[in-house]
Structure formats: C-alpha cells, structure tokens
Fold this sequence. Notes:
By secondary structure, this protein is α/β, with parallel strands linked by helices. It has one domain (17-134): Response regulator (Rossmann fold), CATH 3.40.50.2300. The chain has helices at residues 29-41, 52-62, 78-87, 106-115, 127-134; strands spanning 2-3, 10-11, 21-25, 45-49, 66-69, 96-101, 119-122. The strands form two sheets. Strands 4-3-5-6-7 form a five-stranded parallel sheet, sandwiched between helices. Strands 1-2 form a two-stranded antiparallel ribbon. The model is unreliable at 1-16 (pLDDT under 50).
Amino acid sequence: MATQPGTGREVSMSKEIADRRVLVVEDDEDSALLLAETLGDHGYTVEVAHDGASALAKAADFKPEVAVMDVGLPDMDGYQLAERMRSLTELSPSLRLIALTGYGGDEERKRSRAAGFDVHLVKPVLPDVLAKAIEP
C-alpha cells in the first residue's frame, strides 16, 4: 500500500502485473529508493540509477523493458537520456520510456514525446497510474 500524496488515502498497485525489468532513473536518492521498493513489492525487477551516465551503463547490462526517468538529472536531462537510450542497439526497440517529472505543461509533454518518451507522468503519481503506464 502507498499513501496518495496530500490526502492520507491509501491506494494499492494492481497485483496483476507481469514480472518486468524496470530501470528507475532519479537523482533524488530517497525518491528513487521509495519508487524502487514500491515497484519491487509488486513484482517488478528493479535497478536504480541516479544520473544519465550510470543509467546508460545499467541499461546496457540490465536490458530493461521499461525505464521510469526523471527529467531533471544532474549530468544530462531526461530528454537527452531518452534520445540516447533509444539509440542503443542492444536495447529492445519495444523499450517503454516513462517520464516521471514535476514538469507538466504542454511544452514539456511535447518535448517528452519528441525525445522518445512513451508516457509523460507528473509527480506525485499514484501507484495505480504508474502501473497502468508500465503495463499499457
């Protein structure tokens, strides 16, 4: 169970999710840990990276099926990272990229799509919403 931000209401992620490899890319270590634990508790195999360079290295080894990425990263922004991940031939062309960011305007959503993101979610996001983004 997770608590919906600002409401104190508990919500749960669907238990009917497939086992998938998910790469979490988030520079805030506490947020990354919470997200990884939540996803792991619900059957996902999760790896975490805190910047673009380590995300690229982990992606090459881990071969994620889904990457949930913050846009505001320290070494390269999430848009650049999405473009670079899309160009890695060792990753599946079906790799699902999810932007999880505090930026929710129309311009940011257009930029996400142009960079190769499949989904643009705005923080804070409910676990069920994230699960639906991971499992389209």
